[in-house]
User: Which sequence fits this backbone?
């Protein structure tokens, strides 16, 4: 197994290689090159995923996927700082730490052989509007051959056994606009946006099954003395239950329609994200994951979340998310990781695969 210093060095190299959603190419090339240096034969598929297949001693076929992308734009400062036992910086954990553990495990497999058939996948588009494009593409191609799918993602001890469904919309509004004085009385797209958001937040969002509604970004207008001719917002809808999510989706679309009509503006709703909710027959995966974590003296905790494992739900492939590092402040510039935890996560991942094999 790589040493703690090896893991720390690899973590910094990955974290300092930019990988915004939709622009993961530089990091993908780095990962492919590193895997090739171990003697593996990775390739980059049509979705930008880095994939390497290892033939093993068992016919059981397992996919281990860690996403390449981060939530940060290409110009983000990727300088990492050492603060005590922590490394702090944008994207150091989500998902550089998981990629570090997957890459270290790839080296271990190359040197010692695989206990079963394993697909290593560094996937694209897990974050934001990426809509799991890498995982969806991979599973569309390989689901029929898979016995299990593990998203290597998140904090050590957390096991994602239920996929949170997500629907995302871009709501766009348009009107004639004009000068705030000379064209006073013309409909404003910002008014339509505001009315629609007001209508959205009047929806009674279910507490059980847990569901959420959030307007995450808003934009529009030209200047302080203009009537806005265009405006838009991004809407995020979530639920643990697919039927509840469908109902919430219907109510949200009607709310936007009412708001636009009241403001007398045109509107358009564009579906920009659709992550399926639900679970698969993952009891054996959870049993193996619990045992793997307990073997390294980590207390397992089952949670619901949205990860690459969501993409397995429509295919009926047993899937979970498996966290491999100690960290915090995900999606923030001051995200942190304890690099010493990576060796524990690596051992836990190895134990998981051995138990599944």
Assistant:
């Amino acid at each position: 197994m790589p040493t703690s210093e090896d893991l720390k060095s690899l973590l910094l190299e990955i974290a300092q290689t930019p990988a915004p959603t939709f622009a993961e190419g530089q990091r993908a090339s780095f990962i492919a090159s590193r895997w090739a240096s171990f003697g593996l034969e990775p390739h980059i598929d049509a979705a930008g995923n880095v994939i390497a297949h290892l033939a093993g001693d068992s016919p059981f076929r397992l996919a281990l996927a860690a996403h390449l992308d981060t939530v940060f734009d290409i110009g983000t400062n990727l300088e990492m700082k050492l603060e005590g036992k922590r490394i702090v910086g944008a994207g150091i954990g989500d998902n550089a730490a998981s990629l570090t553990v997957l890459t270290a495990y790839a080296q271990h497999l190359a040197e010692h052989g695989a206990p079963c058939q394993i697909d290593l996948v560094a996937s694209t588009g897990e974050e934001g509007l990426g809509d799991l494009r890498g995982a969806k593409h991979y599973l569309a191609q390989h689901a029929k051959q898979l016995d299990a799918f593990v998203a290597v993602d998140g904090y050590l001890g957390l096991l994602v056994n239920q996929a949170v469904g997500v629907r995302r919309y871009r709501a766009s509004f348009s009107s004639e606009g004009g000068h705030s004085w000379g064209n006073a009385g013309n409909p404003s797209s910002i008014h339509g946006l505001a009315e629609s958001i007001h209508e959205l937040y009047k929806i009674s969002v279910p507490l059980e099954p847990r569901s959420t509604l959030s307007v995450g970004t808003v934009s529009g207008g030209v200047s302080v003395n203009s009537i806005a001719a265009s405006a838009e917002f991004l809407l995020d809808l979530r639920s643990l239950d697919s039927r509840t999510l469908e109902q919430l989706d219907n109510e949200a679309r009607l709310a936007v329609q009412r708001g636009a009509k009241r403001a007398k503006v045109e509107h358009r709703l564009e579906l920009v994200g659709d992550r399926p909710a639900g679970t698969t027959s993952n009891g054996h995966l959870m049993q193996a994951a619990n045992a793997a974590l307990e073997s390294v003296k980590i207390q397992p905790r089952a949670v619901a979340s949205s990860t690459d494992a969501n993409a397995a739900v429509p295919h009926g492939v047993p899937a979970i998310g498996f966290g491999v590092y100690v960290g915090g402040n995900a999606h923030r510039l001051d995200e942190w990781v304890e690099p010493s935890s990576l060796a524990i996560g690596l051992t836990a991942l190895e134990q998981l695969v051995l138990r599944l094999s």
